[in-house]
Amino acid sequence: MAKKGGAEKVRMESTGTMKDGRPTGFRYYKKRTRNLTEKMSFRKYDPRAWNPETGKCGMHVDFVEKKMPPSKKN
Fold first, then answer.
1. Mean of the pLDDT values across residues 42-66?
2. Is residue 1 situated within a structural domain?
3. Does residue 15 contact residue 68 with C-beta atoms inside 8 Å?
């Protein structure tokens, strides 16, 4: 029988910024195997990131792994 809990959920936070320089706060959630030691990093689309070349919102930026917030248990 297979082992339980081989993957864990991680939060991927955007490195993009809005027009006024604040971070966008946009995030993706992914699953990764527990035996990875280095943090994941992906280049994905952020619809809130300001693109200075086009003067519009929406561009591809790097997403880096951040710590998951604690779960809310009642």
1. 95
2. no
3. no
